[in-house]
What does this fold into?
Amino acid sequence: MKNIKSLEDRIINIVRTSDGVRSSEEAELRHLDMNGTEPRMIKVVLAKQFGVQLDLVWDDSIQAFTTDIGGMTWTSDFDYKDYVATPWESGKYYVRSSRRK
It folds into this structure.
């Protein structure tokens, strides 16, 4: 995940569906778990409801993160690629030469 310092830059939209009614909510993206270049899971905290944390799992069929809790379906509504660090940003993916002479 990119090093994003300000809270405003970590705010994402998620959609809550309950009884066929869809509503958009803001949430703070706390963690983005990747398996190589494939997304696996995100952790978000709802912005308007104190202390509510959701773990959403990647669903390939809809190309979004989703979870079901208490009869409500939560689905991500943002592009996760905006939060993925490129290999040259962190330096940990640089190819290094051998130190042997």
